[in-house]
Amino acid sequence: MKHLWLAAGAGAVLAGVGGALAASQTIDQIGLVFTVRHVEVQAGDTLTFANMDDVVHDIAITTPSGDENDLGMQKPGVDLSYKFDQQGHYKVRCNIHPSMKLDVTVD
Amino acid sequence: MSRYLCSFMIGLCLLARVTPARAVPAFAMQTGQPCAACHVGAFGPQLKAYGRDFKMNGYLASDSSRYRLPIAISGWMSLTRTDKNQPAPAAPHFATNDNIALDQVSLYYAGRITRNVGAFIQVTYDGVADQLQSDNTDIRYANGDGELFDQDMVWGIDANNSPTVTDVWNSVPAWGFPYNGSALAPGPAASTLVDGALGQHVAGLGSYIDWNDLVYLETDLYRGLGYDVLNATGQVPITGTDRVEGEVPYGRIALEQQLGRSDFELGGYGLHAAIDPGGGFAGGRLDHYTDLAADANYQFIVNPRSVTSDMLSAHATYIHESGSLDASADLLGLDPDHDVEEFRADASYSIGATWTPTIQYFQVRGNTDPVAWGTPNGSPNSSGYIAELAYVPWGKPDSPFSWGNLRLAVQYIGYLQFNGTGVRASDNNDVYFSIWGAAHF
Fold first, then answer.
1. What is the CA radius of gyration of chain B?
2. Which among A30, A52, A95 has CB closest to B63?
3. Which residue of chain B comes nearest to A58, CA vs CA?
């Protein structure tokens, strides 16, 4: 029990230093949509997009400064990752499926 | 009969070997998606949610690869057999029964033109009428990144040549079941203007919005095409045919909602038109028509992760047409008080995007008028059912090629009432075998 308290205390200290450790989350693509419409992350965090459909996707990410990054063809079963470095609002879209819309806010 | 069947089956086998294809395969080429991603049963024109999005967003979605011009070809041939021989040949150069026909061969431009402009343009050779003609045309500018009241909005501007051809739901006449049918079988005498009568005889401009995947609104304004344009686009015969006068306003509203694995739509559409019957013989008097319709759609997908999932689809529409036929009353002696109602409802269950059985009930009712309908008792009332089984071998993610598809279907139309009477209505029942193929270049 003592060890648990120590671990919890260490986690709190790490969280308190401003999210210096980058985190990673996975967003599923199911039924030709993202399973969430909006997500908030910290600068430097990585999102992984998991194609759970049986057709290809083509993710394009627009950064807060307006640059567009095309992650390219994503075959069924393939995961693609992207690191969100800039603070602000990103738009994540699929070039093939217009209803696949994900907004990412980076704090 | 056996000779015809033998020829038909040989034709099927030859086509199956040499002309495999996709529904509008140019769209598949542009998006890198199999037919089953957009279409119920892996073949057009019945749309799934993604197919509706793709059309509403202007046929623009692309997998960013470099492709050639989005040109495609499709065609179907058929055998039509009615329960009893028709009193006269079904069409020039055809028999009174057991007709084999090359129904249609169509060429398409289907896909993106510029970053925000896309098109579906179809030119068709009608093998029954032996006529090359313009067919469905839908050119649109679309913007899928709009916002209204902090919610997503798709909006667009559209040029087209047929009321309801812009629609994304398969309850409306331009895209409703049956998706192909015989031009060589007898049919009900009455129908409404919005039910295809104006198709390719008008040209219009419109605009639409789809707000928050909840509300769809569209308005269009059409004008009738002149005889010279109709002649040039193969819409013959022209001389002495009715002519659309002035503007034809068309409106559409739909409420849509996705709940879990189900998609719902409830809406309405309508138009008003003035027609010069006979094209100038009525001394300036006109017939006025107003069509108002309600429609509903429902789709349920069993497994959203797979584009080949089993899928239940249902569509229904009710159209009421009222008219004041002052010109036809003077010219031909028709009853000036015109009234027609149509109702159709169908349901299909697509199994593995390969086998798709469909059943439809239909009904047409109208005012009693022997001159207008040419029926023995003056009634145009008809009702019946259509049963169809379609088989589509390809158009799925694991299909051996991506450039083509094929649809084999058998369709049976049974009449409970035909043009005002139930007596011998079944003489007009018909069975229709068709093979429909498509490919992109």
1. 22
2. A95
3. B63
